[in-house]
Amino acid sequence: MNKISALVLKDIFISGANNLSNNYRDIDALNVFPIPDGDTGTNMMMTINNGIKNISSLDTNSCGELATAFSKGLLLGARGNSGVILSQIFRGFGEAIKDKVDLTVDDVTKAFLNGTKRAYKAVLKPVEGTMLTVIKEVSNEGIEAINSNKELTLVSLFEKMVEKAKISLENTPNLLPVLKEANVVDSGGAGIVKILEGFEAAAKGEIVEIKNENVQDKKYVLFEPVIDEDGEDDFGYCTEFVMRLMPDDESKKPYNQDELREFLESVGASVVLVNDDDLVKVHVHTYKPGDVFNFAQQYGEFVTIKVENMDEQHRNLEKQPERKSQMIVTVAVGSGLTRLFKQLRADIVISGGQTMNPSTDDFVKAITKFNPESVIILPNNSNITMSAKQAADILSKKGIIVKIVPTTSIQQGISACMGFNPDCNIEENVMEMFAATKRIVCGQVTTAVRDSKLNGVTIKSGDYIGIKEKKIVAASKDIDKVASSLIDSMMNYDAEIVTIIAGSEVSSKTVKNLEKYINDTFKHVEVEIQQGDQPVYQLLLAVE
After folding, report:
1. DSSP string covering 473-536
2. 63 part of a folded domain
3. In angstroms, rounded to a whole number, what is the distance separating the alpha carbons of residues 154 and 85?
4. How far apart are CA 375 and CA 396, in angstroms?
5. Together in a domain, 179 and 326
6. Strand, coil or helix: what is 539?
7. pLDDT per position as a tens digit, 259-316
8. Which residues, 6 or more positions from 338, have their beta carbon under 8 angstroms from its beta carbon?
9. Same domain, 518 and 395
10. Is residue 65 part of a domain?
11. Which of 118, 60, 111, 532 is nearest to 304 (CA)?
């Protein structure tokens, strides 16, 4: 293959995206912590598929035009750090060939090299032993291969790249000690391998087909923010619920996902249906929320329910509120957390967090609707910060000043909001909000999804885990024991307030037991309890 056409390049992109989509759950499982928030595969899959969406109907014979459109889709759809890095790889790839109609193998190798350089520049402090290392070594392998053989075919190039990628991936634990301790390879690097394997298959004329069940039956994935883009009459009630299946209850029907999906599509639009073990999570726009609840209830019992009148929201948006000088945009999932952030002056709460990182475009669309003079973004998760920064770059071109307070947890986000003063300018607020995040110690309790040993703590699948900042400090089948041990590790001599934020799957008894333990053990502190309704984490704790 001497020349690579736009049609061939499109097949290559699609095959790589499909192969990643077919394997994203295995990549999610390569989580350093054995907790149910591994989302690297999900983020990379949704990022690259947004690129595919952007070129699916594009009719062009120019590889440069195709790659540019593909990279733009990835940029806007980028989720999580892995998704942002992936978008930057293909941004650099597209820049290198933007003026090319057809490509040579030499063009492809140089495009990968430029993508590597762009990705490294996008990361403030690049860490070796990650997907950056894998793409760097793959790109260098491509350059060496073409330099030693000017007649190299595209198939041979991708064969060499895939082989090098696998070697590089297996070596990541030797470069990053935390991977070796957790006995896993880098998840982002594993995603790169899957994409390249798909590229290789397409070069051989064997395009990887998507396995629909792997994409539809997402595990540990929450609802995407739903933002009306074009003003079409898709309003009614935004209806969401989490339902626990009850297969042992004879009064309930066996769960049938296809049956439920067909019903939801018959009564509404914008359907999102997600399975997570014995939980089913549903989002639908409908004028008949009652019918949705009645139909779904035949399978189980509701854990959480939310209904919002989108017609009313749309009418309010049409009133063109006065442009605000400063707005706070934060990220959270859970009705209680959303209410809490609203009470603390947050103007926009984007649905997301662990297991579903909002994309760059989610930030851009949400903020553009209100067109503020300036905005402060609180990501509340280190894996969301890079997407927020990409959004800031885009919004700055629209004349909106964007500042990011790099909050890494919900607790830090709450503390930052409490430090906001509407009478101060944005620079003063950013300084005070950032300072507020440093005055608290954060902890969380969640559940282990596999056996592991980290920081000297032996963990069994199903154990509750106590995490102080980024360190596991306790593990046990007894949630009360884990919570009290976690509090012991977080407490300091000048602590005044302990905040307990209860998740959607923690009992009131557990919360009361923890409150009593704190009151009995640390008599000098005040305990505040908030109902957050967050998934994944039974408890979020803050000591200040």
Report:
1. EEEES-HHHHHHHHHHHH--TT--EEEEEE-TT--HHHHHHHHHHHHHH-TT-EEEEEE---SS
2. yes
3. 24
4. 10
5. no
6. strand
7. 898 898 888 876 777 766 677 878 788 888 889 999 999 999 888 888 888 766 555 5
8. 332, 349, 351
9. no
10. yes
11. 532
